[in-house]
Amino acid sequence: MNKSKLFILFGLILLFFIQISFGQSAKAKQIDDFVSQFAKNNQFSGVILASENGEIIYEKAFGVANADYKIPNQLNTRIGIASITKYMTIIILNRLLESKQILLADKLTKYIPDFPDGDKITIEMLARHRSGIQHRVMPAEAESVPYTSAEFIEKVKQSKLAFEPGTKSLYSSAGFAVLARCLEIASGKTYTELIQQYVFKPAEMTDSLEFNSEEIMDRRAQDYFLTPNGYVNASLKDYSFLVGAGSVFSTARDVYKFGNAILDGKYGENTKTSLVGQQNLNGSGSTNGHRAYFEIEKNKKYGFVLLSNLASGAFDLISKGISDILQDKELSVKDVPNPKFITVSNDELKGFLGHYRRSDGVGEYDMRLVNGSLLAGDIKLYPIRKDCFFEYKFFGEACFVRENTGSIKEIKWKGFGFDLTWIKQ
Prior knowledge:
The protein has ten helices and 21 strands. It has about 425 residues and is of the alpha+beta class. Strands 14-15-16-17-18-19-20-21 form an eight-stranded antiparallel beta barrel. Strands 2-1-12-11-10 form a five-stranded antiparallel β-sheet, with helices on both faces. Strand 18 and strand 19 (about 395-400) form a beta hairpin. Helix 2 (about 85-100) packs parallel to helix 5 and helix 6 crosses helix 7 (about 250-265).
């Protein structure tokens, strides 16, 4: 090949890589511009990582890890990943299944002999949320107390089953905590040892750890909720009641390693087959004041991790926006909500009180007035105009609809990705 042809070939290769680099930097800027809108409104605090073709193109921290001392989040800040922990428990289960230390058909009574109706519950039912064990089994105030895994099982035993085991499905964190205890008994190791051996070590997740309230956790972010006046502290929790279900703290970089380890088969083909969907691998979690989400296209064309220590509906809008940008789609999120609030007297708020049921029958709650605030269940509603309120949990707008007589008929509750009607009973 002569020199002129070599020069042309070199130029084409260089142009190719320049175009790739420009495309990546353009997407990184688009992500940054998009997320910064929420951050400037103090609606997002956390860490974001995005990748394209297996290469990280964007990584940035926003907001504060500690609002009291104005300590900013950093790239290596540890934030709770909530129910993404359940994926890790499934990985441990698969490894113990492979070594025949446990079987899906094993009865719960094999590991916890005195568990009520344990002879009707199998390991598979626990893993598939079909055991009948309630999602949460204790009042909120009891979730701030430390428990060993064995002690928490005693709390689960006191809770009645929601249905006959195996007949229905009910998402259950308590059920996964029971599963984690079974894995401990079957292996003779603690859950902390199991997750280190089977999850963290294979993926080189050096910044991830199991929650332990007695130990100082370096670089841990505090949890917050959002109100019209800014951040408020989330209730203190001892996540020992969520061992195996939502007890891991991690970094965005480690969660990215975790997702890639699944896709690369580092946890075995059974895990890859069971967790990866037709288009991508994704996982989410939300507990107290922290939220987590990751999504990686199965061939690694794109991927991103979103961790936040400020629980609000802005998280969902940001997640959808980043996904759209990485897939070259038109942004679904057109505007960043920035509501303006008004003052409504307690006497006026009392007119909205009552019991409401969703029009499709899935869910109901009492509308209450607590310390001058209107609460739909545990969601605070803030007035923005006559009969209409904004809430931060889902970034939704709830408007009360009146009969001709002026009495309340129903609530139209809308937000990004949902449009619900709640009928007053």
